[in-house]
Specification:
- The complex is a heterotrimer of chains A (about 200), B (about 475) and C (about 250).
- Chain A is built from 5 helices and 12 strands.
- Chain A is of the alpha/beta class and about 200 residues long.
- Chain A has a single domain, classed as 3-Layer(aba) Sandwich (Rossmann fold), CATH 3.40.50.10420.
- In chain B, helix 9 runs parallel beside helix 10.
- Chain B has 23 helices and 10 strands.
- Among the domains of chain B are: about 250 residues, Rossmann fold (3-Layer(aba) Sandwich), CATH 3.40.50.10420; about 50 residues, no CATH class.
- Chain B is α/β, with parallel strands linked by helices and about 475 residues long.
- Chain C folds into 2 domains: about 110 residues, no CATH class; about 120 residues, Rossmann fold (3-Layer(aba) Sandwich).
- In chain C, about 50% of the residues lie in helices and about 10% in strands.
- Chain C has a 4-stranded parallel β-sheet with strand order 2-1-3-4, with helices on both faces. In chain C, strands 6-5-7-8 form a 4-stranded parallel β-sheet.
- In chain C, helix 12 links the parallel strand 7 and strand 8.
- In chain C, helix 7 crosses helix 9 and helix 11 crosses helix 12.
- The longest helix of chain C has 17 residues.
- Classes of the chains: A alpha/beta (about 200), B alpha/beta (about 475), C alpha/beta (about 250).
- Chains A and B meet through helix 1, helix 4, helix 5, strand 9 and strand 10 of A and helix 2, helix 3, helix 4, strand 1 and helix 8 of B.
- Strand 9 of chain A pairs antiparallel with strand 9 of chain B, so a sheet runs across the interface.
Chain lengths: ~200, ~475, ~250
Amino acid sequence: MDERAFIARFRRAGALRPHPGAYPPPHYEATWERFGRMLAAVGGTFVGRVDRASMAAAASEAIARAGGRCVASITAAPLLEGVAGWSVAHDGGTRPHALDDVQLGVLTAEAAVAENAAVLLSARSLPERALAFLAQHLLVLVPANTLVPDLVTAQSRLSIPLPQHLTWMSGPSKTADIEQTLVIGAHGSRSLMVIAYED
Amino acid sequence: MNAPPRFHRDAETFLRDEARVTWHDQAIWHLRKKRDTATEDVPDWEALRDHAAAIKAHVLDHLPQLLTAFIDRARAAGWQVHCAGDADELRRTVHRILEQKRVQRVVKSKSMLTEECGLNPYLEERGIDLVDTDLGERIVQLRHEPPSHIVVPAVHLRRREIGELFHKTMGTPAGEEDPTRLAHAARRDLRARFLAAEAGITGVNFAVAETGSIIICTNEGNADLGTALPATHIACMGVEKLIPTLADAAVFLRLLARSATGQPITSYTTHLTGPDPLRPGHEAHLVIVDAGRSGLNADEEHRRSLSCIRCGACLNTCPVYRRASGHSYGLTVPGPIGSVLGPSLVGDRLARELPFASTLCGSCTNVCPVKIDLHDQLLSWRRRLAERHLVPWPKRLAMRIGAWVFSHPALYDHLGRWVRRLWPWITRPIPGSPLGPWLKERALPPAPAASFRQRWKKDHAGKRDG
Amino acid sequence: MAVAVQLFVPCYVDQLYPQVAEATAAVLRQAGCEVRFDERQTCCGQPMSNSGCAADAAKLARRHLDIFRGTVSVSPSASCVSQVRNHFHDLGVTLDDADHQTMADTFELSEFLVNRLGVTEFGARFPHKVGLHASCHGLRELGLGSMSERRSGVVASPAELLLRKVAGLELVPPTRPDECCGFGGTFAVAEAGLSARMGRDRCADFATAGAAFITATDMSCLMHLDGISSRHGGPRALHLAEILVST
């Protein structure tokens, strides 16, 4: 239907209530300890806050355990120097279907939220968007100094214009649609491991 | 829409299986308890609700400005934006887009709006292979029945029933009823469909005017697969999903998952802004729908119910919903919010039983994250239905007579004596007696010889009052 | 000087549970009130209001306000009090300042005793396990306690306070703190199956908690629960006022 006519249907007369303003950020401890606890509660695993060497070691272990194709996002590649068993899918952004057989995806995140164990993925950190949802298992590497205490702070720090896709990812995929029984690994990843590394 | 509501009939039917009612009630009460636990981690919970309610009030007062800003920014970001005045226009618009792209196979993530508008049958009748990918939605789709809950669509089903369904439709072993194995079977089946789909249809949890973006929240990741793989994305949204800014989104996101399932946030909270520049030919369409919302927004008494963010908390806390089940309401959105929206969206004649499918206990009002005064809304609808003579005449007549009797204390007193005198006969379970339904399950006390006023009069005979 | 209060007696209490009104009067007298009863009163109009019949309810609201004008009234029924305080202004009745004062001066028994008079001890004795049912109108519309859904801190329940001072009485909490009993006025008849099922579940919750009796600030809930218990077996119900006059 005609757009102007459509919009006109919602016109209001009389007193129009103002926007209540910015919401003051709540207080959560911005600690990786809290992040780790919340991540465990939603079915994920927090390896810890470690140095680059330990991160590489943990990544190595995860790749070996995965027992199948391991694809790292191009933004994760620099962090996996010296680690074997992974490759970059250079057409991961243009041909997402080709990522269907990935056992382990290694991603970087731009930020993390202590309140709810979410990590930030976007077109900037993850040009291969489908990797986050097609990989059977995920390993996410996030710089330790990007932890924010709460979602209010986190959302207010997003810069405009937004990348075409941006996802707060908290834990692996899950469903409780069958008799309220929690099943990890609905359509997205079946496990999620997060490592916070000191840059 | 589903078959027209027949709440009383359907609830009474559901109640007959007492063990099933017990199970259904406890399963959904569990969601309420999880919500309570999650809110304990949010010391600012009540302030958050206040703020969310205020943002929504502002939005509903400024829809033209926000819509204009949203559409402008969405178009600038590459969305193809369509406005649909009603359900029929939504269906035709979506079909037209699919036809133009010669789409045969479609995956759809959860969208109450598209259910409300009957999109699935419309597309299926026109030869489109449409698969609902939310596990609960997929289950009810395969069973050819509507969802019974807006967040957990298959909550009314036992694992045995789902096992039988999957055995028939997905080839799982006969007798398999383990939820994990069943869910993983669905994962494999649906994965193939995501990969083969040519278009993905999604709902919208929030539409951000500031950036021309939509936000979709899922636990399964199905909306992400449904938008990251197919070459065309069609997002359908009710006008009321608009919020002003990204910062505002945080307020709602902190409320939504905690209210719905007791999680701090859903597994995936995805902001999409236009088509994917990395995939040549990728198209992103936005269909913005009215379908009764403008009428409701003009209804001063009830427009605040448009604030609903579809969390389902009111369903979970409602003692009636838990014992009647969603199907008794005959609406896409059941429970307290469904009973409040119903008269507006499907008409007061069709929905006339629903505001009465409640004891007005008020629990729903307390759990609503955007502070819709649900139980007061139900009462307000009752008044409107009575004004329009949509409340059964025997009830209205009884109230008229009652008001008349109560306006004449001597008559009331007299009548009271007679009722008590005839009590043993009145309280006999005679067929057709208005007390029949009461007496079926409950006894009544023996009638006292004297009413309080009779005793008081006797005690104070000759004295001044007091 | 003794506080003068008018008894506000719901119609069904007047006719079927006069002992509850008498106990209410006795408790108020014991708390130092001069208790009066205006025989012109009949019904506050709640059933009409809940049926959507606003004009009929308005007629009775106007009548109620005329009778109780200039008085402080106390009732053993939280739902009737809520009708006066919270719903009289939705019926299209023209209200003046005196009417608003009357509405504000209408109290449920336990809130009046505890919050207004500051009296909590009645020398009562009731050596039984008792479940306190938090009637929905009293809890959610009059604020007579903490609502389990809210994160607003602890709100004292006057009824609970009073019961804790009764000798020998042990309060046993149900698993669902404030689930509705299922009465709901005409709902009890129009959706009898649901109403009965809710009532049976509520009685069972109290029975499992070990309650020998259920009490509340609203006789309508208790009429419903007692009706179920007397038919199916389970804890019997009596009004808070009846407990406060027990010795």
